[in-house]
Input
Amino acid sequence: MRLVPIALACLLALPAVARDGEGPVRFDDRPTVGHPLRFTDLAGNVYHPEWLVLLTPAGALAAPLPDTSDDARSEERIDLSGLPLIGDLFYRRLAAGDAALQGMLLGPLSRFGVTLVLDARTSGASLTGRDVVLTANFPGEGAISYRLGRLRFAPAERPPGTGVKVGAGYLVRGALVLAGEGREPLIDDWRRFFEDNF
Output
């Protein structure tokens, strides 16, 4: 009977690897191509962010966010990328809670209307020229990440007033990851799954 949870875990985590041309190609696990860019607040409400502002020791930088993403991925699977021998066959999951485990905390992420503001003034990290990833947990869909690539930042003014905290920013494998803290993922990390069931 204990084989059933293991088999289910393996099926949920499979990225479906296939050969095509030069090297291994993984089948699409994106929710849709051109998925609208979304984020959540701490209450789990979904909204569309339009701007990203980085607060750095040198001042504020702003970049527009795209309306859609051609690289939106469902992160609702058990992360088996850390398993010995076979881990390289699997995508490394990047759900909102994983960013805290895998990366360096940069600072709090707040919402000012349609603007996300990352306060990284005390981090000491250089943030421009990095790939940007948004990841959050959505009702009914679970964890989704949006890989936005490199954004074009320009000097900006800091938004007036006080924003509402929605998450935190992290450096994860060289990328700037903005992780929402609202809602929990539908599928937990594989370590917790095995600890709870065995």
Q: What stands out?
A: Confidence is low (pLDDT under 50) at residues 1-30. The chain has three helices and 16 strands. The first strand starts at residue 17 and ends at 20.
